[in-house]
TrEMBL record:
This is Alpha/beta hydrolase. SUPFAM superfamilies: alpha/beta-Hydrolases. Transmembrane segments: none annotated. GO terms for molecular function: hydrolase activity. It comes from Kibdelosporangium phytohabitans. Keywords: Hydrolase, Signal. Gene3D superfamilies: alpha/beta hydrolase. Residues 1-28 form the signal peptide. It comes from the Bacteria.
Length: 264
């Protein structure tokens, strides 16, 4: 009886093979292209947690997310650090930068075939030779300078922070008062040399870009942000009415939606 069952099984397998049908166990299900990893880069006077609301919304959409810790020491060094972060990622990448973080993603993405899109969130998108300071002063409207404290580093450069009592009005006017106070206390200083350093070739020349522009930004003038978005031939520009420079904190839905569009 056992021999008869074995013969029956062998006969069934032979019939399947002769019919050109591949057994299910041997079939390979089609694989979807992986979602890109979204790398978020904060700017001056902020830190990685400023992306928390955006991260939660992107993860709900199924995207892997990394919020890089931007050193804020020198433009060249910050770009080199971000390149090291990107080197550890397999597959496609979307880069999003806030404020000075736009300077960093523009440099780090250049020549990297993994980077498929750039999202500038209240951010600088520099041309070769332009600095963050130059771009912020290209058009009137920034009132950042008088709100800053400078801490000498002993090498002729300074660490810059926003005075805590002026932080909310300057940086985060549409963020709840208690949360803005925490942001002021945890802000990371930027070395002034980083803001004065000229940029290399911008990756936005060859990589498609998206922009979120907060209409009530007091750090980077609205006119300057519109100028950079137009110059980059942005695929989409979202102007967030009434939003402060801290738009990643105050408007995470709008920011995450724009980044998700860039990641499609």
């Amino acid at each position: 009886m056992a021999k008869l069952k074995k013969l029956a099984v062998l006969g069934a397998v032979a019939a399947i093979a002769s019919a050109g049908v591949v057994p299910l166990a041997a079939s390979a299900a089609p694989t979807k292209d992986p979602k890109p990893t979204i790398v978020l880069v904060h700017g001056a006077f902020a830190e990685s947690a400023s992306w928390n609301g955006v991260i939660a919304r992107l993860r709900q959409r199924g995207y892997p997310v990394i919020a890089a810790a931007n050193p804020l020491r020198s433009l060249e060094g910050d770009i080199a650090y971000l390149r090291q972060v990107l080197a550890g990622i397999h597959g496609p990448i979307v880069l999003a930068g806030h404020s000075y973080g736009g300077m960093v993603i523009s440099g780090a993405a250049a020549g990297n075939p993994q980077v498929e899109a750039l999202a500038y969130i209240a951010a600088f998108a520099p041309e070769t030779g332009e600095s963050a300071l130059e771009l912020s002063n290209k058009f009137p409207g920034s009132i950042l300078g008088p709100t800053l404290d400078a801490n000498p580093l002993g090498d002729g450069t300074n660490d810059l922070t926003i005075k805590q009592e002026k932080f909310r009005t300057q940086f985060a006017a549409d963020v709840p008062r208690d949360e803005a106070a925490l942001m002021a206390a945890t802000q990371r200083p930027v070395r002034d040399a980083a803001l004065n350093a000229p940029a290399g070739p911008g990756a936005w020349h060859t990589i498609p870009s998206w922009f979120v522009i907060p209409a009530a930004d007091k750090n980077i003038p609205l006119t300057a942000q519109r100028f950079m978005a137009q110059r980059a031939h942005a695929r989409e520009v979202v102007e967030s009415r009434g939003a402060s420079h801290a738009v990643t904190v105050s408007r995470p839905d709008e920011v995450a939606a724009l980044i998700a569009k860039a990641a499609r």
